[in-house]
Amino acid sequence: MKPKKESQLIEFWLQLRKNKLAVVALVLLVLLVLVAILAPVLAPYPYAEMHPEDSYAPSSSKYLLGSDKLGRDVLSRLLWGARQSLEMGIISVAIAAVVGIFLGALAGYYGGWKDNLIMRFLDVYESMPMMLLCITLAAILGPSLRNAIIAIGVGSVPGYARLTRATILTVREKEYIEAARAINSSDAIIIVKHVIPNCMAPLIVDITMNVGNCILAGAGLSYIGLGVQAPVPEWGAMISEARNILRDHFSLSLYPGICVMISVLACNLLGDGLRDALDPRLKN
Amino acid sequence: MIRYVVKRLLMMIPILLCISFFVMVLIDITPGDPARLLLGNTATEEKIESLREEWGLNDPLPVRYGRFVWNILHGDFGTSYQTKRPVATEMFQRFPYTLLIAVLSLVLSVFIGIPLGVLAATHQYTIWDNVAIFLSLIAVSMPGFWFALLLIRYFGVVLAILPTSGIEDWKGWILPTVSLALGYAAIIARQTRSNLLEVIRQDYITTARAKGLAEGRVLYLHAMKNAIIPVVMIVGSIFGASLGGALIAEIVFSVPGLGQYTLSGLSNRDYPVIQGSVLILSGLYSVIILVIDLLFALIDPRIRSQYSSKREKIRKKGGVAANEAEEGVAAD
Predict the structure, then answer these.
(1) What is the secondary structure of B265-320 as a DSSP string?
(2) In CA terms, which of A24, A130, A197, B314 is 20 to 30 Å from A8?
(3) Domains along chain B with CATH numbers
(4) Contact A221, A138 (CB under 8 A)
């Protein structure tokens, strides 16, 4: 089994490598993760360190991107902000994917009343616009990074459940599932070892793109004050802090927005690249 | 078809009941007391307790839920704890703003997105295609509220031709609508492009071209008919997003719509306001989804046939069988 798996991975990599934009996006994302991890080392100042004498300093060698109202270094805050944004993107997608794939696999594999029950549940779920659900959840649970992550994660579950269910319906009747059943594998083993791996291709694309969307949603929640709380820097919250000084200090809202845009753009480009690389119709 | 619509409308009732039940449970299990928030920290325990009693918050959950449903059925959404005004009246005043922003931005995004997608698809691998794709990627990846601030900066502050907040005349609608529409237009353009590219490669398009149809007719009469179906689906899901997006756009542009109302209700734990706005927005969303589904049936005969009731199907089948039998007799 092992060598075949490796060759598939290599084949996949060769496919992906053809797409220059996707490779650029991958590099960008790796850089972003590195920045998030190394923020304490890279940032010239601690994110909350105030220099009241340097309020709204222009960009200079002391503050590369200038400083904000309290004289905090914008560059340091942007670097630290990568942490919060990535956390919101990755953890909420992880929550959504695990719960969604579980529900979708259950519904798709068993069918019958379990399918019906889960799908009706999703109908109710999806009757609320996602952003409304996120705002409601985040506000009722109380504004904090953790609750924003939960809210976004919970809000993204139905998409994964539906996608998993739809994919499993096409896999369920394949011969290898029948073979696994014939050698008396339990349902759990069949689902985890045979069904889900064969449904991964569309899910991986969805997960990649969803990280970007969740970063956007997280920035939105922080912007309206339901996400990361001060003094911890977050890009959406930084834009929000600077929204009333557009006339004089526009750069304070410009830079964090560019950071969000680049991260989301990287996720979308990589997602596009993955879809092309994983699509068997495009092979050869 | 009518049976189907009625069935779907009836289905909405349990769904909306479930949603408001979930909201009530969620409110119930999280800490926070609207009475304490209204009266402030200086209020005495007795005062808070009497206010809670007045609002009926001390009753058990099923009683409260039953009362809530009973009141809703009588068109009574309750009274806001904070403003002391009926929630139904306040929502009625604010609702048009939210709906109008959502609808205007949706219309604008369709009018930008579809032509852009067609342009990109018909000029595949040219500079037009690349520019359209690149622009739409950028637009999809931008936070809407940030783009809104960019618009405010250039049109409101630097050029000073449009108001930066509030809605006094028609000019006030422009920035909120445009800021929301951009991202949606990009999604629609991407979807249109990829669908059209898929359809254009089909055999029947080659046939249409081979029999000498003008390219315009091939494109709009043959290709678009099939390519537009998934776009309609995307537009439907975008409408849901635009309702949520309108909430944020309202906050950015201080439009007196449901967004601010919902948010202030949430931060004050103003339960009637929360329940009312969640119910109204979800109800509206469900109706829109239904309309989109019907639109589907209108443009796609394959789906329309699924909606016709079972009896009709049997009748049709029976009719076909009878015809065949007759033909058989005639052949003999």
Answers:
(1) HHHTT-HHHHHHHHHHHHHHHHHHHHHHHHHHHHH-HHHHHHHS-HHHHHHHHHHH
(2) A24
(3) 22-76 (no CATH), 94-299 (1.10.3720.10)
(4) yes
pTM comes to 0.85
Closest CA to A46 of A84, A80, A86, A83: A80
**C-beta neighbour count of B66 within 10 angstroms:** 12
Min Cα distance B267 → chain A (Å) is: 6
Residue A144 contacts B where some CB pair is shorter than 8 Å: no
- For residues A156 and A203, give the distance between their C-alpha atoms in angstroms, rounded to a whole number: 13
Contact B143 A261 (CB under 8 A): yes
Judged by DSSP in three states, A273 sits in helix
DSSP label of A49: -
* Span A74-124, pLDDT tens digits: 888 888 889 888 989 999 999 999 999 999 988 988 888 888 899 888 888
The answer to whether A140 contacts chain B (CB < 8 Å) is yes
* Contact between A129 and B282 using a beta-carbon 8 Å cutoff: yes
Considering only A4-18, B60-74, B170-184, B226-240, which range has the smallest mean pLDDT? A4-18
What Rg, from alpha-carbon coordinates, does chain A have?
Answer: 22
- The residue written with tokens 């200090």 in the block is A249
In contact, B275 and B28? CB cutoff 8 Å: no
- Residue B157 or residue A212, greater confidence: A212
Query: Measured between alpha carbons, how far is B149 from B146 in angstroms, rounded to an integer?
Result: 5
Q: If DSSP codes are grouped into helix, strand and coil, which group holds residue A274?
A: helix
Is the minimum CB–CB distance between A261 and chain B shorter than 8 Å?
yes
Interface of A with B in 34-73 (CB under 8 A): none
φ and ψ at A73, to 5 degrees? -70, 120
Residue A257 near residue A281, CB atoms below 8 Å: no
Does any CB of chain B come closer than 8 Å to the CB of residue A81?
Answer: no
Place of tokens 């069988």: B321
Q: Do A130 and B241 touch (CB under 8 A)?
A: yes
Label residues A11-40 b or e (16+ Cβ within 10 Å = b).
eeeebbeebebbeebbebbeebeebbeebe
B56 contacts B64 by C-beta, under 8 angstroms: yes
Specify the amino acid at residue A46. Answer: P
- Residue entry with tokens 């920290």: B41
Q: Which of B140, B152, B282 sits opposite A128 (nearest CB)?
A: B282
The closest CB to that of B30, out of A134, A135, A141, belongs to: A141
Q: Closest residue of B to A138, CA-based?
A: B266
Give the Cα separation of A98 and B271 in Å (integer): 32
Place of tokens 């989804």: B289
Partners of A261 on chain B (C-beta within 8 Å) are 138, 141-143, 146
Nearest-by-CA chain B residue for A256: B146
Cβ-Cβ contacts under 8 Å between A and B: the total is: 130
End-to-end CA distance of chain A: 23
Residue pLDDT, tens place only, B1-23: 788 888 888 888 888 888 888 88
In sequence order, the β-bridge partners of residue B86 are B79
Cβ neighbours of A59 (radius 10 Å): 14
A238 touches chain B (CB under 8 A): no
